[in-house]
Amino acid sequence: xxxxxxxPQFLSIQEGENLTVYCNSSSVxxxxxWYRQEPGEGPVLLVTVVTGGEVKKLKRLTFQFGDxxxxxxxxxxxxxxxxxxxxxxxxxxxxQNFVFGPGTRLSVLP
Amino acid sequence: xxxxxxxxxxLITVTGKKLTxxxxxxxxxxxxxxxxxxxxxxxxxxxxxMNVEVTxxxxxxxxxxxxxxxxxxxxxxxxxxxxxxxxxxFCASRLNRNTEAFFGQGTRxxxx
Lengths: 110, 112
What we know:
The structure holds 2 protein chains of 2 kinds.
Chain A: E1 5-7, E2 10-14, E3 19-24, E4 31-37, E5 44-49, E6 55-58, E7 61-65, E8 71-76, E9 85-92, E10 98-100, E11 104-109
Parallel strand pairs in A: 2-11
Antiparallel strand pairs in A: 1-3, 3-8, 4-5, 4-9, 6-7, 7-8, 9-10, 9-11
Chain B: E1 4-7, E2 10-13, E3 19-25, E4 31-38, E5 42-51, E6 54-57, E7 65-66, E8 76-78, E9 87-94, E10 102-103, E11 107-111
Parallel strand pairs in B: 2-11
Antiparallel strand pairs in B: 1-3, 3-8, 4-5, 4-9, 5-6, 7-8, 9-10, 9-11
């Protein structure tokens, strides 16, 4: 079974700060997805990255897929309380299955 | 509105009492799956289905059954629940294996 690790596990920051969370694996994935999950809800897709080295931006969120397609990062600029949630990465094993990481729980304090 | 609907949202039951969690999607998606989410372990796939009458085991299938008699429905069955099946369960559907997963709102199950 392929494993995805995420770090940090927990992160608590003040509004306006920048942060980066990481998703790492020893396996190569055909694509990688990032989801955000809020309390009492299911995960919601933020982005899919497919090409090694690819960078995608979604307003204040910047996603990068590692050159070797084994890792990814999510950078948030000027975090806001509305960014609070559990951030999950999920790797696509060439259509066989999706593997989810354990998540990074982010808390942005006003 | 495109959605995945799970029922019930909350369930407390006793060990050994059979239960079914229903899942229905209105997007005509082929691929459906069940996950359980536990602290520190993330989402682990229980079973998945690539189409009607086609189901396969995921990473943690022990103690669970599923069926896919219709494209829209994918119920999760616990024949004899045990306390270690206490968890938060999510149903998800995708157009196919490689596309975005749409998740239901979750079912919080407690087995005492």
